[in-house]
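LOG
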Amino acid sequence: VAGVACASALARSGLRVTVFENGRGFGGRLSTRHDRETGVSFDHGAPKLDCTTDQFRQWLESQEKEGRVARWNGNFATVEVSMEEKKCSVRKIEDETPKFVGTPSMSTVVKSLSSELPLDGRFGVSVKTLKKEGKGWVLKGLEKDKEFSSEVFDTCILAVHASRTADILQGSAVHDEFAKVAGEVDSIPSYAMMASFEKPLPCPSVFDHAVVKGSNVIYSITHDSAKPGRSTESDIWVAHATPAFARQHFDEDRNVVAKMMKDEFVRIMHMICEKDIPDPIVLKGHRWGACFPRVSEPLPGHCLFDPSSGLGVCGDWCAAASAEGAFLSGSSLANAILKLHEKGSKM
C-alpha cells in the first residue's frame, strides 16, 4: 500500500515512475487468495480498513463513489474464551470509527491506487542492493531468477517491511542512519487460516469480525461472506493466529498449521453456537512474515527522505501498523519528493 500510494501521487503529478515488485502483482497484506479448484476467494490479509484520519477517509470515500470500496457496517465484537470452563462470551464493540472493505475483494483497494498510474510495473523482481551511480541510483537483484541491473533513476524509494529495508541498505553499504532506524523495528509474524463451508454455519449474526481473547491459537476471526459485495455461494471464514502461535509454528507445513487453527476455530464456534460445526470444503493456510511492525511512535513526517541523495523510505512501520499507516507514509514521502523534483524526472 505504501509504495503504490507514493507512486500514485508522484505519477499523478507528472513524474515518470517505475515500480519493482517482488510478487506477481500489487497487494501486500491487502492481497486476496483465490482457490483455483473451487473459485473461492479469501481476504487472507487485512480484514478491513479502519479509518481514523481525514486524508485516508477522503480517499476511501472517493473510491466508494467509484464502487471500488464499501463501508462495512458489520457486527464487530470481542470473544472471551475460557477453555477450562468450555465457554465463550461475545461482547459487541461499540466503535464509530468508519470501516471499509474493498469490493469485490480487499485486493481491489491496491488495484484502485495502481489503476490511476501511468507507470511501468516490473513484477517478479527481488531487489537485493542499491548502488549510487553519479547523481542517481541503480537497483540490482534477481528478475525471475536471473540477475538484473536497472537503469539509473534520480530517486530511489524503498517501500518494504522494516527488516527488508535494513537488509537492503546494509547490504548496499548506503545510508547507515536509515538502516539503523529500520533495523530497530521489531515485526510480528502471523498465520492465516482460510476456510470455506458449503452452507452457512449454524450461528448466524453472532459477529462479522471479532478479536479473540483467551485463545493460545487464534487472535481474530472474520466472516468474509458478511462483507459487502461478497459472493454467498459458500460461507467463507478467515482466522489469524496469535503472534506466539505464529512464531512457534511458522516454518511448519502450512496444511498442518491450518488444520490446527481450524480445530481451534471449530472449538470456539461450537462453544458460541452450541451446535456442531461441519468440516470445511476448502481449508488453506498462509504464513505472513513481518506482518505487524511494533510502532511505538510514528517517525517524524511518517517517512524517511534524504534530499541530498534522493533516497526515500516508507511503509506502515514508519507511521502505524495498518493499511492507513502505510497509505499515510507513502503519501507523505510523495509530498516530500514533489517539493524537490520537477516534472519529467525518473523514479
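LOG (cont.) second protein
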Amino acid sequence: MPRFEASALRGYCVSVLTASGVERSCAEAVADALIDAELTGVSTHGVSRLAVYMQRMDAGVMSRENNIRIVRESTSTLVVDAGNSLGAAAAKFAMERCIAKAKETGCCFASVHSSNHFGTAAYYTRLAAAQDMIGFACTNLKGKIAPFGSAEPYMGTNPISVAAPSDDLPVVLDMAPSVVALGKLILAQKLEKSIPEGWALDKDGRPTTDPAAGRAGSLVPIGGAKGSGLAIMVDVLCGILSGGPYGPHLHDLYVMDEPQGVSHFLGAIDIAHFIEPAAFKSALSAMSREIKALKKADGVEEIFLPGERSGRKAEENAANGIEVPQPVYEELLELGKPYGLSL
C-alpha cells in the first residue's frame, strides 16, 4: 500500500477541497479530522470519506460555504446552526468555543443542528483534553440500529466520546452503540471484503457477512437493551435538544437526495474549576497504571485503557507515515484530476 506523511496527505485533502470551491477554514477543519482518523488507526473515518463529501457537494446537498453561526448563547451554552456546512468544520467551531467559554465559566455545552457527518467523535474530545479539560461529543445519524425488541432500524450508530487528560496519553472513550460502527461496513464494501457474522442483519433480520446487505438492513446493538438505550439518548441530546430531526427522519450520507440534517452535542469541562489539573492528571495516570498492572485474563498480553491503542497508533503513524489502501489511493487521485492535483 502507498504510504504518505500526514502533512502531505492533509495538504492534498485541503487542496482538493479548496480547488473545488470549499471555504478554506472549512477545508482545513475537514482535512484535520480525516488525517486524525488515519493517524489513530480509524481509517473507516479517514481519507476514504473525502469522496462522498465531494459527491454530496457536487449533488448540491451539502454546502461548500462556511454558513456556521451561533443562534443562541448563554454563559455556558451555545446553539449553533451549521447551515448545512461540512460537519467537521461546524463541530470544531463549536468545541473551540466551548473550550474558550469553559475557561471562564467552568463548563460549556453546545448543540449543533443542520450539520453533516463530522468524522470521529474522539477528534473533538481530544481537543478539549489537550487544554486540560474533559471533552464530550456525540452525534446522531440516519437510523441503522433496531430498538431492543424491534426488527426495524430506527436509531443511528450514534457515536459518543469522552476524553480526559493524564500525564501520558489522554484516556479517550470513543464508541458506537452498535457492535461496530457503520464505517466498517462501508470500508469493507469498498474493499470488496466480507464482514464477520454478528456485526449486522440483512433487511429480513437474518445475520449476514455481506456488508452491502448489512447496510441495507440493520446493525446489531451492543448489550441488547443497553446499546439500544444509549443510541436513543444520543438522539435526545443531538436531535431533540437541538430542534433537529432524529432517527429515520435524518438522511443517509450515501444517498444524494437531501441534506443529512444531523446534529451534534459537544462540551468541555475545565478541570481547573474543580481541582488542580496537575493533581487530576497525576491521579488519572496512577489509576491507569493500577489497571494495567492487574492480573490478566487468560490469553491477554496487555490491558489497555480507552484510547491507548489509538494513541500509540498515532505516534507510530506520525513517525512512519500513513498507509492508504490501493483502492482508496486511486479514488483520491481521481478526486484531484479535475484540478490538476496529484498525490
